[in-house]
Automatic annotation (TrEMBL):
CDD domains: HDc. InterPro entries: HD/PDEase_dom (IPR003607), HD_domain (IPR006674), HD_GYP_dom (IPR037522). The keyword rRNA processing does not apply. It comes from Ruminococcus flavefaciens. Residues 250-445 form the HD-GYP domain. The chain crosses the membrane at residues 12-31, 43-62, 82-103, 115-139, 151-172, 184-202, 208-226. This is HD domain-containing protein. SUPFAM superfamilies: HD-domain/PDEase-like. Keywords: Membrane, Transmembrane, Transmembrane helix. The keyword Iron does not apply. Residues 272-394 form the HD domain. Pfam families: HD_5.
């Protein structure tokens, strides 16, 4: 300790000089700073100036000590007086700083009494210092003009100590009221000078208290600056949040206004409820798949939402006419794009709105209206909306027809590529259709996902029924409440029909059953009775809880009975668990094949079904989850080649093992469409991909391209570009012949060439010459391929390199 004191004595004048310069610079910075609260600014400025003059005075007192000249006489007395006075000034200013903090940030209406008492003690200390100058109570000067302590010297330290103790007690009590950035320096300011003052009482010749106070003043400024920056940053963040919230509210208001306007448009046509919203959703799907950014997608969404705004100017009698329109009426309908453009063009900040309304009925071949634009002369937004608009028109109910099945819609898009539709956006819609295996993109998409079915008032058997709920290898939970209607009978129970159709709905008329390929598997009644119609086998297990008679009596009394159903499908087997408080039924059905869809619809007889809730949990089941009650239907029990055979029952529902490909790889196999196949794309596909383990959907899986052997191709990766060239050979007659050849079975060979970032796939298949080129923009160390498809069996797969 003594060595430290001696070291300070040796260098204290240099330390004082350096600290005084720092305080002077900080005072200048405080003076020119505008971000500090005005009252606090002057307090901090006073602190820095007091600290600077304290050290200058302390240094002057040491410099003139022992100087017997007249100037020394005055300088020693003036500088020592200023030292003691400025120490009190710094402590007083610090107390004022605390008062400012507690009032402005601490939420106090008035300062604590102890801080007021500190200010009084400072004034008392100054009075005592002045008295001391005339009485020598604190200190005196000898004949050599040297400073000497007097008997009352401890009091000049006790008064500042009392003030600091009072300040410290307030700081500790209200610690949380101080900004977290300022707590430590403020607490140090009240504690460290106490310690240094006590040490100062027992030492002489070193200005420990003065240097400590000045050091803490500098520290206080630094932390005050940090706190100020934090406050400014917080204020900026708050301002940004306010701006963002305002933008969000404005955006929400715009969206709600646009949606309300779209609803008003759709309300004019009783057959197009929700049309505008669906077109907007489909448009965004197409735009995202085309690589549009979020801003562009948002513009496309609102343009699509308001694309039919011009129908406001068309008579309701024309819009809702059920028969064929006259030429005059059709002419009136064709004016709605121009009316829409005129309405929306006044929104100058969003010019894209009027573009969507004006040009969404233009055709790619130039035969559209109102301007007859052709190809890429049609604005990009309008070409996207045209695709989405046509899709929703075909998949929604109209006065003159039911929704068109999605697979037929797909064929219409294929026919319209390059004529009605932009080929690029048309192909994207084809891809979205292919991915939509559960037919979610249709009129019922209006409601939220997992939409609850409305109340069913069932009279005669099966006259009222819900839309079908698609069953797959995920568990579907259905909850419902049923009770007897006014028609009392012993058959007033709900039933569940399992079926397949192109539109996912039940049909009774022979024409619709034929056109929509309606196929009924079975009907399961709520009492566990199963009526088989198109299944190969059925197994029912019933567990009686309260018994069938108790269930029947409850139904006849008209009591509400809650049913919980679990339904799932794995390949050609369906499992239904049906339970209520009386009985539990487990039904297993063996379907005729694995390729048709399986829908479950609710119906009944003389009952009311309400509170229906359908939840698809996403839980997946394994093949062994449903006990097999019939032999698996397979078309691949044939000799295999280099890798196992594969049967693909649905769109890419299975695929072969992956295998590495290099330049010159040849892949040969035999393929046959399954008996249920009826469409052109029910054929094999080849997938080119990369993954760390070489497996499809393996670690870091990246799909580069999918090439179908009907000639369509698709790149799945942003860093890959795919082009497919298809030529019809002499032996190609038509697509019906193509489908027949697929069903009969064909041998196929694919040749893969890889060079300079390009992957080429060539084959001749069923009268088509297909050549696909995929250009990859980055380096891929290993490439893999796998065979898949839709409703086809692929056997005898052989790979040669």
């Amino acid at each position: 300790m003594n060595s430290i004191i001696e070291l300070l004595k040796e260098y204290q004048l240099n330390i004082m000089f350096a600290l005084s310069l720092i305080c002077g610079m900080l005072a200048f910075f405080v003076f020119i700073t505008k971000a500090i609260i005005p009252g606090r600014k002057y307090i901090i400025l006073s602190l820095e100036l007091c600290a600077m003059f304290l050290l200058i005075s302390e240094r002057m007192s040491y410099h003139y000590r022992g100087d017997t000249r007249q100037i020394g006489y005055y300088m020693v007395r003036i500088s020592n007086f200023l030292v003691f006075g400025l120490i009190l000034g710094i402590i007083f200013t610090f107390t004022l700083y605390l008062i400012n903090v507690y009032i402005n940030e601490g939420g106090m209406e008035k300062p604590p009494v102890r801080l007021k008492l500190s200010c009084i003690m400072c004034a008392l200390g100054l009075v005592m210092l002045i008295i001391s100058q005339f009485t020598g109570f604190y200190y005196t000067f000898d004949e050599q003009n040297c400073y000497q302590r007097s008997a009352g010297f401890p009091i000049c330290y006790i008064i500042p100590l009392i003030i600091l103790v009072l300040d410290m007690s307030v700081i500790i009590q209200h610690y949380k009221r101080i900004s977290k950035h300022m707590r430590i320096p403020i607490l140090l300011f009240s504690i460290v000078p106490l310690i240094s003052s006590i040490i100062q009482l027992f030492t002489y010749g070193v200005s420990l208290t003065s240097m400590t106070l000045v050091g803490l003043v500098v520290l206080l400024y630094v932390f005050a600056l940090l706190d100020m920056n934090y406050m400014i940053e917080r204020a900026n963040k708050h301002e940004i949040e306010v701006v963002r919230e305002e933008q969000k509210n404005m955006h929400l208001l715009f969206e709600q206004t646009a949606t309300a306007l779209a609803n008003a448009i759709d309300a004019k046509d009783k057959y197009t409820h929700g049309h505008s919203r669906r077109v907007a959703k489909y448009s965004v799907k197409v735009a995202r798949s085309a690589g549009k950014n979020e801003k562009e997608c948002e513009e496309i969404y609102f343009a699509a939402l308001l694309h039919d705004v011009g129908k406001i100017g068309i008579k309701d009698s024309i819009i809702n006419k059920e028969g064929k329109l006259t030429d005059e009426e059709y002419g009136a309908i064709k004016t709605h794009p121009v009316i829409g453009m005129q309405i929306l063009s006044s929104i100058s900040q969003s010019p894209y709105l009027s573009i969507g309304a004006h040009y969404h009925h233009e055709r790619y071949d130039g035969h559209g209206y109102p301007a007859g634009l052709k190809g890429e002369d049609i604005p990009d937004i309008a070409r996207i909306i045209a695709v989405a608009d046509a899709y929703d028109a075909m998949t929604s109910k109209r006065s003159y027809r039911d929704p068109i099945p999605q697979q037929i819609v797909r064929e219409e898009f294929v026919k319209g590529l390059g004529t009605q539709f932009d080929p690029n956006y048309g192909r994207i819609m084809l891809h979205l259709i292919d991915l939509d295996s559960e037919y979610i993109m249709r009129e019922s998409e209006d409601a939220s996902e997992g939409e609850a079915i409305g109340t069913l008032l069932c009279g005669p058997y099966r006259t009222t029924r819900s839309d079908g709920i698609l069953l797959n290898n995920g568990i579907v939970h259905i909850h419902l409440t049923s009770y007897m209607s006014n028609e009392r009978s012993e058959e007033n129970i709900p039933s569940f029909v399992l079926f397949d159709s192109l539109d996912g709905r039940m049909h009774d008329s022979e024409r619709k059953q034929r056109d929509l390929l309606y196929y009924e598997y079975a009907t399961i009644h709520a009492d566990g009775v199963v009526e088989q119609k198109g299944t190969r086998n059925a197994q029912v297990r019933t567990n009686e809880t309260a018994g069938a008679s108790a269930e029947t009596k409850a139904m006849l009394r008209g009591e509400k009975i809650e049913f919980d159903i679990e339904a799932m499908r794995c390949k050609d087997h369906v499992l239904i668990r049906l339970m209520n408080c009386y009985r539990f039924h487990e039904i297993i059905l063996a379907l005729p094949d694995s390729t048709r869809f399986c829908y479950l619809a609710l119906t009944g007889k003389n009952c009311i079904i309400e509170d229906v809730d359908v939840a698809k949990t996403g839980e997946k089941i394994s093949e062994s989850y449903i006990p097999r009650i019939a032999e698996e239907i397979t078309y691949i029990n044939l000799p295999q080649g280099d890798i196992p055979n594969v049967q693909v029952d649905g769109w890419r529902s299975d695929c072969s093992e992956g295998f590495e490909i290099t330049n010159g790889t040849r892949i040969s196999f035999h393929t046959m469409s399954l008996p249920t196949a009826r469409l052109v794309w029910h054929c094999p596909f080849i997938v080119i991909y990369t993954s760390e383990d070489g497996q499809v959907n393996g670690k870091n899986y990246r799909e580069l391209t999918v090439v179908r052997l009907d000639g369509e191709g698709w790149e799945e990766d942003d860093r890959a570009e795919n082009r497919v060239h298809v030529n019809k050979l002499d032996d190609f007659t038509d697509w019906n012949s193509f489908k027949e050849k697929n069903k009969a079975g064909q041998d196929c060979e694919l040749l893969i060439k890889i060079k300079s970032g390009q992957i080429g796939i060539s084959t001749e298949y069923c009268g088509l010459s297909i050549h696909s080129i995929t250009t990859v923009t980055d380096d891929i160390p290993k490439l893999y391929a796998a065979l898949t498809g839709d409703q086809c069996a692929i056997t005898n797969i052989r790979i040669s390199r």
